[in-house]
Design goal:
five-stranded mixed beta sheet, 4 helices, elongated
Length: about 200
């Protein structure tokens, strides 16, 4: 007869294997479908981006902020807890992430993180079908998967921004250079590009 520890060990091994298999399959699907969906994703990203630019322009007109110099597209780790991983777009003047007036928008990269939600729902179903291992033991697995998907989404955001700039028929032009970064909120980021229009 299996002990409680052995039951837990066997069950969690099955959960890990299921998560790993589903994640691996999703990576192939993401890469296969991304080019086809890039235009749709770029349109989705443009909504919070241009809403934020309009808000920032109003603040600048009111002289509440200086010229726009930086845009940060930052992953919000706290959004994983809420079950809806997303990004925050922040618009800053030359004080670089220290603007006194906040101007931000949020964006849910559904194309990537819907795969995480699908895995999460499947694993929760496995937990509900047994009673020996509490569901909170799933949390660390989901956080780890979210980090893996986040690394993929950061790279895809880089591609989406460049695609959007190249393919938009109308642009907002700047009389100076705006730097765009992607990464963690108020933490490590990677440079995407300098732009004089969006």
């Amino acid at each position: 007869m299996e002990t409680g520890d052995k039951i837990r060990e066997n069950f969690m091994a099955k959960v890990f294997k299921t998560a790993e298999t589903m994640y691996t399959e999703s990576i192939g699907q993401i890469e296969e479908e991304f080019i086809q969906k890039e235009s749709e994703i770029a349109r989705s990203f443009a909504i919070p981006l241009f809403d934020g630019l309009k808000r920032y322009a109003s603040l600048e007109w009111e002289k509440a902020v200086g010229e726009l110099k930086y845009i940060y597209v930052s992953f919000l780790r706290t959004s994983i807890i809420a079950g809806s991983p997303n990004y925050r777009l922040d618009f800053y003047d030359d004080r670089n992430r220290c603007s006194l007036i906040e101007c931000s928008e949020e964006w849910n990269f559904n194309y990537i993180f819907d795969f995480l939600k699908h895995i999460d729902n499947s694993l929760k179903k496995m937990f509900k079908e047994q009673t020996r291992v509490p569901e909170y033991e799933l949390d660390n697995i989901i956080f780890e998967l979210a980090e893996h998907y986040r690394k993929i989404s950061d790279k895809k955001i880089d591609s989406v921004i460049k695609y959007m700039i190249e393919n938009r028929e109308e642009h907002i032009a700047f009389n100076h250079t705006v730097k765009i970064y992607v990464g963690d909120f108020l933490d490590k980021v990677s440079f995407v590009l300098d732009c004089d229009r969006l």
